[in-house]
Specification:
This protein is of the alpha/beta class. It folds into 2 domains: 201 residues, Alpha-Beta Complex (Quinone Oxidoreductase, Chain A, domain 1), CATH 3.90.180.10; 136 residues, Rossmann fold (3-Layer(aba) Sandwich), CATH 3.40.50. Helix content is 28%, strand content 25%. The chain contains 13 helices and 15 strands. Strands 3, 4, 5, 6, 7, 14 and 15 form a 7-stranded mixed beta sheet that branches. Helix 6 links the parallel strand 8 and strand 9. The longest helix is centred in the middle third of the chain and has 11 residues. It binds nicotinamide-adenine-dinucleotide and zinc ion (2 copies).
Length: 345
């Protein structure tokens, strides 16, 4: 089969690779039909994710058709159309029983990281019963690709951890697919203000279409002062960090108001200063989270009912043979206006 293989920082190649087989009784092998690229794949290529070693097939998102199942799989059969969760979960360990699937002792975020991923013709999914979701009859498969990672991530790590509430003020630093997923799902709770921050005016225009009340380009002027001005000098109730660089986490510390929450989503590859000398008295909370994907079934219903239009996030489509172009397009989003790119297999 064909697969996109990581070759170390800056290196990746579309190569011939052995097709995966069922290794453990709970495994399923899925024939991929659609996958996509995540900001986290770009972090891997920058060398920010040391657990992902050269030789690994990249990708942790997508939909497909079950090809084979192990003897322990009871919920799926060959031929079933499935949504793949970026998080593999056994459903039985202490962490899984607490709903913290991201820390499953034999799963978590392993796909396209510690085991081969979804940017390939086939992928082996461990703990298939609790890591795959059946695709409802008549569902739009492209839209469902947004449920493997970005919608649950924006919602769980940003909106739920950030305690977004009716009437509150929210700033989302980073208007990439993850920040936009947080913007879409924050609106379930009717916050009074959602201020989107990015360096890219195109992404800020998209944010306005998606429901942002204000947008700020942090490349120009003083974004912290502008956000303070928009919130009567107080700062925001919820500051969601959706970039993964020191500057964006520092900005969140500058804009969080008393009693507020900084909800970090970004994958950080570098140390960042925490200004406790200023924040110790501000009654704030800081949360971090690797997405658990516990909300995927709920979010699937909101996509199915069109409460949120997940397809708005899709800007480009490529074939697997063109995956290097897909990465180039996604990696140069300011020029190409890419959000999520779909790779058809
Ligand atoms: N916690 C999790 O479980 C989890 C899951 C998935 C992704 N992530 C992470 O979420 C982050 C966002 O993912 P994405 O796919 O949207 O990435 P992306 O790279 O497409 O988007 C990041 C956006 O941030 C903007 N940006 C860069 N520097 C900025 C700055 N200083 N101030 C404001 N904006 C700035 C960029 O212009 C871009 O639009 C990444 O770090 C990704 O690895 C975390
Ligand atoms: Zn991801
Ligand atoms: Zn587990």
């Amino acid at each position: 089969m064909k697969a996109l293989v990581y070759g170390g920082p800056g290196e990746k190649a579309l190569e011939e690779h052995d097709k995966p087989t069922v290794r453990d009784p709970g495994d399923a092998v899925v024939r991929m039909t659609r996958t996509t690229i995540c900001g986290t794949d770009l972090h891997i290529l920058k060398g920010d994710v040391p657990t992902c070693t050269p030789g690994r097939i990249l990708g942790h998102e997508g939909v497909g058709v079950v090809d084979q199942v192990g003897p322990g799989v009871t919920a799926f059969r060959p031929g079933d159309r499935v949504l793949i969760s970026c998080i593999s979960a056994c459903g039985k360990c202490d962490y899984c029983r607490r709903g913290m699937y991201s820390h499953c002792t034999t799963g978590g975020w392993i796909l396209g990281n510690q085991i081969d991923g979804t940017q390939a013709e086939y992928v082996r999914i461990p703990h298939a019963d609790t890591s795959l979701y059946p695709i409802p009859e008549g569902a739009d498969e492209e839209a469902l690709v947004m449920l493997s990672d970005i919608l649950p991530t924006g919602f769980e790590c940003g909106v739920l951890n950030g305690k977004v509430q009716p009437g509150c003020s929210v700033a989302i630093v980073g208007s990439g697919p993850i920040g936009l997923a947080a913007l879409l799902t924050a609106q379930f709770y009717s916050p009074a203000e959602i201020i989107m921050v990015d360096l890219d005016d195109n992404r800020l225009q998209v944010a306005t279409r998606f429901g942002a009340t204000h947008t700020i380009n942090s490349a120009t002027g003083d974004p912290a002062a502008q956000i303070k001005a928009l919130t009567g000098g107080r700062g925001v109730d919820t500051a969601i960090e959706a970039v993964g660089v020191p500057a964006s986490f520092l900005l969140c510390q500058d804009i969080v108001g008393p009693g507020g929450v900084i909800a970090n989503i970004g994958v950080h590859g570098m140390k960042v200063d925490l200004h406790l000398e200023r924040l110790w008295s501000q009654n704030i909370s800081i949360t971090t989270r690797l997405v658990d994907t516990v909300t995927t079934p709920m979010l699937l219903k909101t996509v199915q009912s069109k409460a949120i239009d997940a397809k708005l996030l899709i800007t480009h489509r490529f074939k697997l043979d063109e995956i290097q172009d897909a990465y180039a397009t996604f990696g140069r989003a300011a020029e190409t206006h890419a959000l999520k790119v779909i790779i058809e297999i």
